[in-house]
Amino acid sequence: MINLLKAFLRHHLRRPLPALLWIFGVALGVTMVSGIYLANQSALNSFSKATKALSGRATHEISTPGGLIDETIYTLLLKNFPGLKAAPVVEGNLACGGRLLTLIGIDPFAARQLNPLIDKTFSPEDILRFISEPGLVLASTAATQLASAEGKLLLDSGGRREALRPLQILNSIELPENPEKALIFGDISWVQEILQGPGKLKKIDLIVENTKLIDSLKKLLPAHVQITAVTNQSRLYTAMLDSFSLNLTALSLLSLFVGFYLVYNTVLFALLQRRQELGILLTMGFSRSQITGALLVEISFIAGLGSLLGLGLGYGLASYSLAIINQTISDLYFFLRSTPPQTNLDFYLRGLVIGIGSAWIAAFFPLLEIRHNTILSLLSRRPSKDRTFTNRKRNFLIGLLIIAASLILAYLPSATPYFGFGAAFGICLGSSLLVPLGVETIISRITATTLPQLKWRLAIGAVKRSLSRSAPAVAALMVALSMSMAISLMIGSFRNTVDQWFLNSIQGDFYITDSDRDYDASLLNPSLVKELSNLPEIAASNRYRNLRYQFNGRLVRLTGVDAKVLKN
Description:
Layout: H1 2-14, H2 16-55, E1 60-63, E2 69-70, H3 72-80, E3 85-96, E4 99-106, H4 108-114, H5 116-119, H6 124-132, E5 136-140, H7 141-144, E6 152-153, E7 167-173, E8 183-187, H8 188-194, E9 200-201, E10 203-207, H9 212-220, E11 226-229, H10 230-273, H11 275-283, H12 288-332, H13 345-372, H14 375-379, H15 387-390, H16 392-410, H17 418-449, H18 454-465, H19 467-505, H20 526-533, E12 544-551, E13 554-561
Parallel strand pairs: 4-8, 5-7
Antiparallel strand pairs: 1-10, 1-11, 2-9, 3-4, 3-10, 5-8, 6-7, 12-13
Helix pairs in contact: 1-2, 1-12, 2-10, 2-12, 2-13, 10-13, 10-19, 12-13, 16-17, 17-18, 17-19
């Protein structure tokens, strides 16, 4: 075996180009799959850690789709369940120096039970000052950077008639999972006045260890108020990100699909070039099993090199993609800093398995053909019978059946996108099986009608005579080009549809909202809306309200509009 491996290594040293193409083909697929996987996992992990750091030990939360609940619900809970660990929360966004600050109003005595971040920050003296001095806040490191030299945060009025009082920083708190988030905590009494108004809460955080208590709590709550598990809330946001990640993963698998053709062609060329060498090895007494085993070791080694290269390139792709994914999370939910992706053992194992596994699959049919050839046919200079050419009609029928089955799968009613992805891969595979007969038919007609010179007919006819090598190359180019055009067309059509919808439906010149990213809690003062509507320069105004519900573990949005501005 060692001698065989040395002989195979010398072959690649004499002809390095096929091996380099082989490595490149494996690296192409591994780069896309591993890079997208690492970016997705890093973004989801950062998102989960950041949400857990803010929720602390809370297991459930009480909220309402309207965004605000009455604080009497909190007192009612404590009265009926004296030992219940609960903390009222008020939350909203304010502007400071052109940047959004997340202001959270807390009861420091209750919050210390649920959030270790708050518990380790307060001393007894700090708590006394915190509850007795309005405008005193705990600020994250990023928020303290916005403060003046005197340690004050000068807030923008945000369209309010009266200026907001400056906030004085009491202590700084560390957010290790998201140090760039501008976050401040204030006593709930004065934060209510700035944000939701007196007597209103954003939510109530709970620690409920006995699940039977949940039913008792639900009976006590009004119909419009709901209690949900914090994990379910996080799972809803994660599900939204999963759909984004799923599409990226599907695109990366298509890249692996194209890279597979390149690996298959390279392996096939490498084995066909060494037919005589393999025949000589058989005459020297080496068994077919020994040669096959040595070839598999060689394939694994070269594919391993390609996988390692792909992992390195995949890390670079993940670093670039992670910044885009984190920006999407920051735009939709809350600020999430862009950090370098964290690799783990699963990342490396996944890349090696994909790279080496795809090379083994690509080498299966070439190795099978070598094993079935006799020693005489291997030593002969005459080309062996092209099985792809022989089986072109059968492959054509199989390809049509696969395409038909894929189309049926694509139109099956299903809530999961996996059927659609499976259909897309099936159509790619089926179309690839149509290529040999298609290439043979086209070349036969060209050589018979449009090429009078013999040298041109011989040159182009060589493509038909070696379909086992030319057909995979044509199929790889066909799949890559078709998917690139399809994705570009899909994205362009979607963008054009959105543009047309905005131009034809949304006729407003200005859009007014407050700085709160939570549109459920984003409410404008009714007097401000009325005053704006009465301005002589305003031809029409459209009031918009959005509510968010959880139904069967899914997020449902209810939108109300006063459609004076919408165009039918």
